[in-house]
Specification:
Layout (H helix, E strand, L loop, with lengths): L8 H23 L3 H16 L3 E4 L2 E3 L1 H17 L6 H8 L11 E4 L2 E4 H14 L3
Helix pairs in contact: 2-3, 2-5, 4-5
Length: 132
């Protein structure tokens, strides 16, 4: 029998689980993309999909539309796992390299090949500067 006023081990376990759940929710809210981050990432995805560039992933070439779809699926995963909270993190965690091989993603635009991370970071800077 339990003493009056002393919580049981079971009750303490339930309280600990509730406190943990509240803390996890707070951490998840922090890790989510805010409205600005969402706009920037969506603008980058549109930029990718509407470009005339070829995307090179693991040695194979893909169209801009295919690249956009691939990056969108990686973004969806990161959002579900609360692993992205800025456009920079989207570039770093989804658009820079293959999670499978570790090889960097590249783009070829007008015969000029470069790292996709550099290309997207440059576009993000343009987006933040606003219209000319």
């Amino acid at each position: 029998m339990h003493s009056v006023g002393r919580p049981s081990v079971r009750r303490l376990g339930v309280i600990l689980m509730l406190v943990s759940a509240v803390c996890l929710q707070a951490m998840n809210a922090y890790a989510a993309l805010d409205a600005t981050g969402q706009r920037e990432v969506q603008a980058l995805l549109v930029f990718v999909g509407s470009s005339h560039c070829t995307f090179i992933r693991n040695g194979s070439s893909y169209s801009a539309v295919e690249a956009q779809a691939h990056l969108q699926s990686k973004l969806d995963y990161l959002v579900r796992k609360d692993l992205v909270n800025s456009a920079e993190e989207f570039i770093e965690r989804a658009a820079s390299q293959s999670n499978f091989s570790g090889k960097p993603y590249k783009v070829s635009c007008d015969g000029r090949e470069r790292l996709s991370a550099d290309w997207l970071t440059e576009e993000l800077q343009h987006l933040r500067q606003g219209p000319p």
